[in-house]
Amino acid sequence: MVVLSWYSVMKIITGSIFKLSIKYVYSRNDTFYYQRKIPIELQSRYEAKHVKVNLKTTDIREVSHKVIALNKQYDSAWEAMRTNDSITPQSVRQSAITLLKQYGLNPLPSQNPELNLDHFIDVVIEPKREAYAEGDEETYRTSSPENYLTPVATEAFKLLRTAPKLILSEGLDVYLNGHKKKNDQSFRTYTKRSWNKLIDILGDIPFEQINRANANQFVEKFLESGVKTTTVRRTLNVIKAIFNVVIIERELVKSNPFNKLRIAGLGEDTIKREQFNTSELVKLSKACIEKNDDMRWLLALQLDLGSRVGEIAGLALSDIKIDAEIPYVIIQAHPWRSLKTTNSKREVPLVGLALWGASQVIANATKEQIFAFPRYTNAKTCNATAASGALNGWIKSKDIQATTHGFRHSMKDRLREVDAPEAIQLAVGGWSRKDMASGYGKGHSLRVLKG
Q1: pLDDT, tens digit, for every residue of 280-298?
Q2: First to last CA, the chain
Q3: What are the φ/ψ torsions at residue 27 (nearest 5 degrees)?
Q4: Would you list the DSSP string of 184-230?
Q5: Residue 134, Ramachandran bin (φ over 0: left; ψ between -120 and 50: alpha; else beta)
Q6: Which of 60, 66, 115, 406 has the fewest CB atoms within 10 Å, i.e. is most exposed?
Q7: Is 48 helix (H, G, I), strand (E, B) or coil?
Q8: Cα–Cα dist 293/297, whole Å
Q9: Which residues is 51 bridged to in the sheet?
Q10: C-beta separation of 207 from 252 below 8 A
Q11: pLDDT of residue 372
C-alpha cells in the first residue's frame, strides 16, 4: 500500500487496481489526521485557521467513515454560526474553561473568589486592553473585548459575566448520567448515535434556541437522507426523551419542541419482514443438529423460544435450568445486557430444538464459565449485533431469506395455529400486555406455558 498525502486530499494506492482519495486527511508517523480550513468569515471565533483531529485509526474504511461524520459536524456547525453571531465553537469554550481553571476560576453561576477574579483581569485582560487603546481613553472604555482578546480569552471573559447556555452536545451527559441504563454500552451507543443526528443537521447550538421550526427542519432533512420513516420516529423518541430530561434538570422555561411531531407517510415505506415457513424451520433444525456448535445452539434456542437474539446471546449459564422438573430458561436483565421492556422478563419452557440447544450449552460448558455464549458476551457487554449478523449470514447460505427476528413472527403464528390464548402468547414471547390487570400476580406456570 502506498500513501500519498497532503492537507487537502489523501490518495491511497493498493496494488494496481484499487485507488482511494479522501479529502481533508493526511498521515504522519502512521497516524491519520483530519485537517480542514475554517471558513474565513468564521476564523475570528477560533484560535486557529484550521480544525485538526487525530482520527486514532489505521483502518482506511474507518478513516472514511470518521471523515464523513466530521464533515457533517463542521458543515452543520459552520452553517449555524453564520446565522447566529453568538454561537461559539465547542473547542473554544472548552479551552476557555481550561484557561479559567488555571486562575482558580469557574464559569457562572459559580461563585469565584474576588482575589482570583482580580488576578485574572490584571494578567489576561488589562494588558491587552491597554495595548489596544494606546492611551486613548474613549477606546479603552468602549471597545469590545473581541477587538483585543483572542477568541479563547474572549469566551473566558464572557463566561465570568454570563452563565453559559447549555449546547446540544452537553445535553447528552445530562440525560445519560441519571439514566438507569447509563452503564449499558449498547444503549449509550444507540442514544449517542441518535442524538448526533440532531447535531449533524441543526449544528451544536444552545438548547434554548431550538424551536418547533428547527424540529420540523430536522425531520425534513433526516427524511431527505433516505432513511425509513420508522427510523425517523425511533430517533425522534430518543431526542424527545433527552429534551424532556434537560428541560427538567436545567429548569429551562420552554416546551419540548419535539413533542407530537408529524412524519409524512409514516410507515408507508415499511418493508414487511420475512418469516419462516414450516419447511424452512425443519431445514434449519436439521442443519443446526448437523453443525452442532455454539452458534447453532444459540439459533436453536431462538428458533423454538421465539426470543430476540440479544435475549439469548446474553444469557448467563445459570439462566438455563435443564435439571428442573420442566426444563426452562430465565430471560432477565443482566449488567451486560438489558431487556427491551419490563414485560420481556419471563421464564419460558424449553421444548423441541430449544431444549437440545440448551442441553448442548450446559454439556459443553467449562468449569469456570459464566456466560451461555461467551463468544458474544462478557462482563461488560453483549454483542447481539455480531450474533445477529453471523446467524443471518448462515441462514442466507441455506437459501432462506428471513432473518433471526423472523423467529418471533413465526412463533406468534405457531401459537395462533394451536389456538393458544393471547395471554399465553404474550407470556411466551415477552410481548407487551394490553391491560394493567394482566400484569398482576405471578403469571402462568411453566406447565401451562408448555401446554
Answers
A1: 999 999 999 999 999 999 9
A2: 62
A3: -120, 145
A4: -HHHHHHHHHHHHHHHHHH-S-BGGG--HHHHHHHHHHHHHTT--HH
A5: left
A6: 115
A7: coil
A8: 6
A9: 36
A10: yes
A11: 95
Count of beta carbons in the 10 Å neighbourhood of residue 247: 17
Torsion angle (degrees, nearest 10) of CA 348, 349, 350, 351: -120
Query: Residue 274 has which C-alpha cell?
Result: 420475512
Using CA atoms in the order 137, 139, 144, 146, what is the torsion angle rounded to 10 degrees?
-120
Of 400, 154, 229, 430, the C-alpha closest to 299 is 400
Residue 358 has pLDDT above 70, yes or no: yes
Q: Which tops the pLDDT comparison, 377 or 266?
A: 377
Q: Which of 99, 107, 95 is nearest to 48 (CA)?
A: 95
CB 320 within 8 A of CB 372: yes
Q: CA torsion sign, 391 to 393 to 394 to 400? A: positive
| The residue type at 131 | A
Which of the listed ranges 56-60, 161-165, 244-248, 340-344 does the model predict with the highest average pLDDT?
Answer: 244-248
**Rounded Cα distance, 396 and 445, in Å:** 36
Q: What structural domains and CATH numbers belong to the chain? A: 2-62+78-83 (no CATH), 90-161 (no CATH), 195-249 (no CATH), 278-450 (1.10.443.10)
**Pair 264, 233: CB distance under 8 Å:** no
Q: What percent of the chain has pLDDT over 70?
A: 89
Cell of 256: 419540548
If you search the block for the grid coordinates 411531531, which residue do you land on?
A: 261
- Rounded Cα distance between 178 and 310, Å, is 24
CB count within 10 Å of CB 112 equals 16
Residue 271: other Cβ atoms inside 10 A:
6
**Helix or strand run (H / E) with residue 14:** strand 9-14
Instruction: Read off the pLDDT of residues 178-216 as tens digits, 9 standing for 90 and up.
Output: 888 888 877 888 899 999 999 888 888 888 889 999 999
Residue with cell 445477529: 388
Q: State how far Cα 199 lies from the chain centre.
A: 13
Mean predicted confidence (pLDDT) in 427-432: 75
Distance of CA 86 to the CA centre of its chain: 29
Q: What does the pLDDT read at residue 19? A: 54
Comparing 164 with 235, the larger pLDDT belongs to: 235
One-character DSSP codes across 55-123: -----HHHHHHHHHHHHHHHHHHHHHHHH-TT---HHHHHHHHHHHHHTT---TTSPPPHHHHHHHIII
- Which SS3 state, helix, strand or coil, does residue 412 take? helix
